[in-house]
Amino acid sequence: MDLSGFATMDVHLLYSLINTRLRNEYADLQDLAKSQGIDGEALQQRLVKAGYHYDGTLNQFRAGG
Fold first, then answer.
1. What's CA 8's distance to the chain center, in Å?
2. Is the pLDDT of residue 65 over 80?
3. Is residue 54 a part of any domain in this protein?
4. How does DSSP classify residue 39?
5. Containing structural domain, residue 21
6. Which whole-number Å values give the CA distances from 65 to 3, 36, 50, 57, in the listed order?
7. Angle made by CA atoms 37, 38, 44, in degrees to the nearest 5
8. 3 part of a folded domain
9. What is the per-residue pLDDT across 13-56, written as a single tens digit (0 to 9) for each?
10. Do residues 31 and 56 make contact, with C-beta atoms less than 8 angstroms apart?
11. Domain tally for the chain?
């Protein structure tokens, strides 16, 4: 699935999709953003506003603060 429309995608679907990609294809969030040609900071902020935070050690977004 193309991530270029992440700003309007259902946030829970986005959360699942991003975590799957991070787990299976990318070393970290920056790598994913660069490879997909998207703004990683904007992606992260979209998920933060929905209650998710990025854990760099786990290379996953998690619910909660």
1. 13
2. no
3. yes
4. -
5. 11-63
6. 24, 26, 11, 15
7. 145
8. no
9. 999 999 999 999 999 999 999 999 999 999 999 999 999 999 99
10. no
11. 1
